[in-house]
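lol so apparently i was supposed to do this last week
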Amino acid sequence: MAEPRPHVRCAICGKPVHPSHRPFCSPRCAEVDLGRWLTGQYRIPGPPAELEEDSPPST
Ligand SMILES: [Zn+2]
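anyway here it is w/ zinc ion bound
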């Protein structure tokens, strides 16, 4: 049982990594990881929404 290389598992789903899609098991997981990166690094584009507490006159 001499394995040529240690089994590396996909960081997304934990399945064995596919050589063609390293370090993931499939393009799907690669997209998931990419999505995590994007959501982690970039903010969602849009107008700056400042959360100012509006105190409406309670009249
Ligand atoms: Zn995977």
